[in-house]
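Review form for a predicted model. The reviewer records the input and the model, then writes brief findings.
Reviewer: anonymous (R2)
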Amino acid sequence: MSLVTLGKRGAFLAPLALLLVLSLLGNVAHAQGGFAMSGTFGQQQFQIPQGAEVSGSTIYVVVFNEGDRDLQVRMASEAPFGVEALFSEDEFPLKPGEQMKVYVTVRVGENAVPGEYQLLVRAEAAPEKVEGIAIGTAVAQRAKLTVTGQSALVEARVVSPDGQPVVAEVRLFKLIDGRENEFAFSNTGILEVKVSPGHYVARAYVGGKKLAEEFFDVAAGETKTITLTVKTVYFAHFGIVLNYYTETGELAFVKVVYQISNLYQPMADVGLVLKVSLDGEALEEIPLLSLSELSLGDIGGSWEYTPPQGWEAGTYTFQAELYVGGKLYTTSLEEELEVAAPTAVTAPFNLLLIVSIAAGVLIIGMAILLVVVLRRRRQY
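Model under review:
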């Protein structure tokens, strides 16, 4: 059980403050009122060089509210100089019975001092009043951290058998005392990361399935290039082509072009969806393709897209998602389009030319008429 007087950002508020006690029992920490934490962070053994960071889908804590009160939770950390813990969620509410999974990234600065440390991450619940004293709870996990002064580079890429880049999950693990510790993660099929020397394994996943892996050693100062070849369904091409009105030069529509390559096996119940967003907010999802079976080989197509409300100023994002059996299998890379604020509408060039010619004819006609009138006056 953990009790502490909390104020703004966890500061002590009263002279009678109670000491914070962090209960770390196995992988689960408990505090008063059913406030608890579990997860994998406390099992990690980080070995990180100066100027690098570690993150991954297997580095996280889970915060629980098993009590009967609403809680406002804030994440914090205790780290040595030059080291910081970054959270996917810094602050969030938890109703009774709810939980939150928080991913942790450990960043080591260039000025961090090499050595062995303990790194603590903590979840603090907002205080409640008990007999005039602000009482709060906190739970934490602690991991081992080694900051090294030596580093190397790892570049991992996922490709098809014919050498084309494949959008896939790439995960890099460091083997320490026979245990795998996730070091880095990418969902683009390309991973470039600064690492500490040692023994590693890189793996490629598509649709949640491991399709390739490679074990390797990397020495201090070395740049290691790893190629993971996979047979799978992937986007061989995805892009956008802009089309403009000839008369005004304004954007008319965007042609979305895609090509899917299946090097894996025939797959049933396949769907392709185009997702469009504006400044990070979802606009719409458009079905592009629906097949009872996707055969081996290539298939492609295009779609002419115009926003329902017309083009607005901002950043449009286009991405295609491939579903198999109703579940997301893979995605394309994102394509972005910057649309500027609309300018004043000008007359088309052809119209301006006609008006100019008409004005010229009118002026010449008036000049001829004036000459005729003047000659008649002289005659009289």
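Findings: The chain has one helix and 29 strands.
Further findings: Confidence is low (pLDDT under 50) at residues 1-26, 343-353.
Recommendation: see findings above.
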